[in-house]
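dumping this here before i forget
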Amino acid sequence: MKYCRFQLEGQAQCGLVELVAGVETITRLLLAPPENNRGDMEDLPSKRTNQLPLGEAELLAPVRPSKIVCIGRNYREHAAELGNEVPAEPLIFFKPPSSLLHPGHRIRRPKLSRQVDFEGELGVVIGRTCYQVGDGEDVRPYILGYTCVNDVTARDLQKKDGQWTRGKGFDTFCPVGPLVTDEIDPWTGIGVETRVNGELRQQGNTRNFIFALDVAIRYISQVMTLEPGDLIATGTPSGVGPLAAGDVVEVRVEAVGTLNNPVVDE
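structure:
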């Protein structure tokens, strides 16, 4: 099942997304937020609506997390390209919910930074309250679905500060979308790509995670309670680089979709 959030007659709605004549289309309105259904996307109540191609909808970020937990340096090549060692255990940090950005909306390069980088990633949306998951426990029942994330980073501020809150936390620094799906399996390998102005810059696969999703989710859950709707950004492949005003950055996750955002100066 796939769903999105979008504006309809001035109201935010959740919509079921299905293929109609080969085109991803919003076919029904969901009557409750999917994260409120204990991770079960199949039994969500819905009602009819006029069908709307996804590409014509005014899309919103498909998540409303209480927190955004990110996993740093989860690909060996990315750690190496920034001159960092491979972490011995998951390296986690936060982005604030105020950094969320809708598909198609503008990433703002802040005046405080001289280098703002893209980082395309697979996002995991939590569907059930998750705390202290045991070593032998399957994490899949806690996952509502998957989406695309751009972990935009003020690289100069990240390096300057040591801790990453400022470099990762500016408004517009977490584009998410275009939809959420439960129809993929990252454990078997899902491609993650980023393009800037149509040019391929990043190309990775979740098979190459240093810490698989079950390891990362168990690790995070030993520290904090993950609530329904919370978002986990799972790490970026190698190839990160700076953005300039006028650029258009696209993050594509295989079988999920493509997240597009233009870039402007503050």
